[in-house]
Amino acid sequence: MLFPILDLSYIGQRFDAIAPAVVSAGMQAGVKDPDNSPTALQQAMHRLMELLEILIDQVESADEATHTSLDELSELGDYGIKLLVDFSTIAAGLEMPRESEEMEDLTLPMALWIVRHQGELRTLEPVINSLARLANRFREPSQLQQLYDLSVELIQAMEPLMQQEPTRIELAHPWSILVMNQAIIATRSYQPELIEQAYETLCRLLPDQAPDFFREGMEQMDAQNYPQLVKEVVEKYYNLWGQPRTLH
What we know:
Layout lengths: L7 H22 L8 H24 L5 H27 L3 H9 L1 H10 L8 H13 L3 H18 L8 H4 L1 H17 L3 H14 L4 H14 L4 H15 L6
């Protein structure tokens, strides 16, 4: 499993495994902004995790989650994602690329935790960065299947929001990257059924961008030596979407 148990304890434990080295480096480097130092961000994250634990206990003990409680969960969850991004940025500035990537990668389980508790995902770009890194790292079909399933979960949670203004405008670019990344993950899995599902989603959600995607996909098939079964699916969608349309 990509995330053994996807809960706040897992996120907190991973954060606490990464943060101390960055805090130590920040103290040695004498980070000037006390409100945006690794130490301050570490403390802010610990406070946030406590608040989220209290809030989720309240939500789960109530007969029905209220709009106010879910909005608060969305707001605090979004703050958590931004704290992780800030920490990642500071780690990069301290020339700690591994810790920077690992901290940004925590935005993916945080995003999944938010949507699984009926919250809204309001910051998407770092989550997509994490998803893309995992896609580049994994090679086994079972791993890519898991990653594909997570991308489906994110897209299904985000789709209703993408029908609303101003969310649709604000998140249009990262949303399109998420949908295309899902199709890329499916293609790399070499599983025709997943590829078909992902391509249908792509055509439905991004019809204007689908033709370029399938044209580029055809170019990659021979260059990357994809299996024949995969090539056949890509060629099918290329023939449907990728060729210039003419009027008759």
